[in-house]
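Quick note —
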Amino acid sequence: MNQAWKHFQEGTVEDLIDPNLMLHNYENIDIKSEFLRVLHTGLLCCQEIPSLRPSISKALQMLVNKDEILPAPTSPPFMDEKTMELNDRSENLSSSPVEYGNAASVASISQSIFYPR
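Predicted structure written out below.
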Protein backbone atom coordinates (compact mmCIF):
# COMPACT_ATOMS: atom_id res chain seq x y z
CA MET A 1 0.00 0.00 0.00
CA ASN A 2 2.81 2.36 0.91
CA GLN A 3 4.57 1.81 -2.41
CA ALA A 4 1.36 2.21 -4.43
CA TRP A 5 0.54 5.50 -2.69
CA LYS A 6 4.12 6.78 -3.11
CA HIS A 7 4.22 5.98 -6.84
CA PHE A 8 0.73 7.43 -7.33
CA GLN A 9 1.79 10.69 -5.65
CA GLU A 10 5.02 10.86 -7.67
CA GLY A 11 3.35 9.96 -10.98
CA THR A 12 5.54 6.90 -11.46
CA VAL A 13 2.90 4.16 -11.43
CA GLU A 14 4.63 2.35 -14.31
CA ASP A 15 7.33 1.34 -11.80
CA LEU A 16 4.73 -0.85 -10.09
CA ILE A 17 3.95 -2.86 -13.24
CA ASP A 18 5.60 -6.28 -13.30
CA PRO A 19 7.81 -6.44 -16.42
CA ASN A 20 7.15 -10.18 -16.69
CA LEU A 21 3.52 -9.58 -17.69
CA MET A 22 4.55 -9.23 -21.37
CA LEU A 23 2.38 -6.17 -21.81
CA HIS A 24 4.18 -5.32 -25.04
CA ASN A 25 1.82 -7.83 -26.71
CA TYR A 26 -1.07 -5.38 -26.17
CA GLU A 27 0.03 -2.55 -28.44
CA ASN A 28 -3.49 -1.18 -28.97
CA ILE A 29 -4.11 -0.63 -25.24
CA ASP A 30 -2.63 2.22 -23.20
CA ILE A 31 -1.45 0.03 -20.32
CA LYS A 32 -0.14 2.92 -18.20
CA SER A 33 -3.47 4.80 -18.22
CA GLU A 34 -5.41 1.57 -17.58
CA PHE A 35 -3.13 0.70 -14.67
CA LEU A 36 -3.32 4.25 -13.31
CA ARG A 37 -7.14 4.15 -13.39
CA VAL A 38 -7.25 0.80 -11.55
CA LEU A 39 -4.72 2.00 -8.96
CA HIS A 40 -6.56 5.32 -8.51
CA THR A 41 -9.88 3.50 -8.00
CA GLY A 42 -8.20 1.10 -5.56
CA LEU A 43 -6.80 3.98 -3.54
CA LEU A 44 -10.26 5.57 -3.43
CA CYS A 45 -11.68 2.28 -2.12
CA CYS A 46 -9.24 2.07 0.79
CA GLN A 47 -9.37 5.64 2.08
CA GLU A 48 -9.17 5.95 5.84
CA ILE A 49 -12.61 7.58 6.21
CA PRO A 50 -15.23 5.01 5.15
CA SER A 51 -17.74 7.65 4.04
CA LEU A 52 -15.26 8.82 1.38
CA ARG A 53 -14.95 5.33 -0.13
CA PRO A 54 -17.05 4.64 -3.23
CA SER A 55 -19.63 1.87 -3.19
CA ILE A 56 -18.88 -1.29 -5.16
CA SER A 57 -21.19 -0.20 -7.97
CA LYS A 58 -19.59 3.27 -8.07
CA ALA A 59 -16.09 1.74 -8.13
CA LEU A 60 -17.10 -0.52 -11.01
CA GLN A 61 -18.54 2.49 -12.82
CA MET A 62 -15.24 4.32 -12.29
CA LEU A 63 -13.35 1.45 -13.90
CA VAL A 64 -15.70 1.09 -16.87
CA ASN A 65 -16.41 4.75 -17.66
CA LYS A 66 -13.05 6.04 -18.91
CA ASP A 67 -14.39 9.58 -19.39
CA GLU A 68 -15.31 10.04 -15.73
CA ILE A 69 -12.86 12.23 -13.83
CA LEU A 70 -11.89 10.53 -10.59
CA PRO A 71 -11.65 12.54 -7.36
CA ALA A 72 -8.29 12.80 -5.65
CA PRO A 73 -7.90 10.08 -3.02
CA THR A 74 -7.00 10.91 0.55
CA SER A 75 -4.12 9.05 2.12
CA PRO A 76 -4.95 5.47 3.05
CA PRO A 77 -4.82 4.34 6.69
CA PHE A 78 -1.52 3.18 8.17
CA MET A 79 0.55 5.31 5.80
CA ASP A 80 3.12 6.08 8.49
CA GLU A 81 5.32 3.00 8.67
CA LYS A 82 5.79 3.54 12.41
CA THR A 83 2.04 3.19 13.01
CA MET A 84 1.82 0.06 10.88
CA GLU A 85 3.17 -1.91 13.87
CA LEU A 86 0.08 -3.31 15.52
CA ASN A 87 1.57 -3.73 18.96
CA ASP A 88 4.83 -3.22 20.77
CA ARG A 89 6.12 -6.59 21.89
CA SER A 90 8.28 -5.17 24.68
CA GLU A 91 5.24 -3.57 26.32
CA ASN A 92 3.25 -6.79 26.07
CA LEU A 93 6.03 -8.89 27.54
CA SER A 94 6.35 -6.72 30.62
CA SER A 95 2.62 -6.39 31.29
CA SER A 96 1.42 -9.90 30.52
CA PRO A 97 2.09 -13.14 32.36
CA VAL A 98 1.82 -15.06 29.07
CA GLU A 99 5.01 -16.55 27.68
CA TYR A 100 5.38 -15.25 24.11
CA GLY A 101 8.36 -17.19 22.83
CA ASN A 102 8.59 -16.48 19.10
CA ALA A 103 4.92 -15.53 18.68
CA ALA A 104 4.10 -12.03 17.51
CA SER A 105 0.74 -11.94 19.27
CA VAL A 106 -1.53 -14.01 21.46
CA ALA A 107 -5.13 -14.73 20.56
CA SER A 108 -7.69 -14.88 23.34
CA ILE A 109 -11.33 -15.83 23.29
CA SER A 110 -14.17 -15.39 25.70
CA GLN A 111 -17.10 -17.73 25.89
CA SER A 112 -20.65 -16.99 26.95
CA ILE A 113 -22.98 -19.72 28.09
CA PHE A 114 -26.67 -19.11 27.65
CA TYR A 115 -29.27 -20.97 29.69
CA PRO A 116 -32.95 -21.21 28.75
CA ARG A 117 -35.50 -19.61 31.06
